[in-house]
Amino acid sequence: MDYQKILSDIDYICKTYEDVSLIREVINSVNSNQLKCKSWLVDKCGKHFENNPRILVAAGWFGLVGHLIKQRYQAEVTSFDMNPLCAKIGKIMFPEVKFESNFIENQNCSGYDVVICTSCEHFEDQVIHDFVKSKDKDTIVILQSNNYYSIEDHVNCKDSLQSFVNSYSKSINVLKSYELDMGHYTRYMLVGF
After folding, report:
1. Gap between the Cα atoms of 16 and 133, Å rounded
2. How far apart are CA 19 and CA 156, in angstroms?
3. Per-residue confidence (pLDDT) for residue 167, from 0 to 100
4. Which of the following CATH numbers is that of domain 31-192: 3.40.50.1980, 3.40.50.150, 2.130.10.10, 3.30.2040.10?
5. Region 71-98: what's the mean pLDDT?
6. How many CB atoms lie within 10 A of CB 25?
7. What's the pTM value of the predicted model, to 2 decimals?
8. Spatial contact of 151 and 113, defined as CB atoms under 8 Å apart
9. Structural domain boundaries of the chain?
10. Dihedral over Cα of 126, 128, 130, 132: its sign
């Protein structure tokens, strides 16, 4: 990752938006934990990003995971988030990623080869179930969550990897599951279709 470019982009965002909470959110979106979790996804799931797939990233924030995929693979990546500012700022930070604004409840994921959500802890299980129901039959699904209960916006953390897998095994045929020790919490990931 080109940290000098990121710092330059953050400087531009500071001058353009002058919103301290937004600036903090942008900085948080590329912190070491975010980078570690998103890089882990790209490393473990790389075979699904080969052969020019169409990838949809749900609740993709400012687009870090899309950027990391695009750095290593020729893939068409669309990232969407409910906050329209995520698309505006994401285009500044990661212009190689396509950005849209939408709520996960309204997004159709048919027509994509891979669907990713690294923010399952921010949504009730039923929201994720309904979202992945709109995918094509053979679409790969990659989901991440955690047991990081101390963040107010984390409304649906899981106690264990098995609990995470059990939550989605009714709507996804789980092929692989992983966990990553992050020190203060554990990150979970499942891959299926």
Report:
1. 39
2. 29
3. 96
4. 3.40.50.150
5. 96
6. 16
7. 0.92
8. no
9. 31-192
10. negative
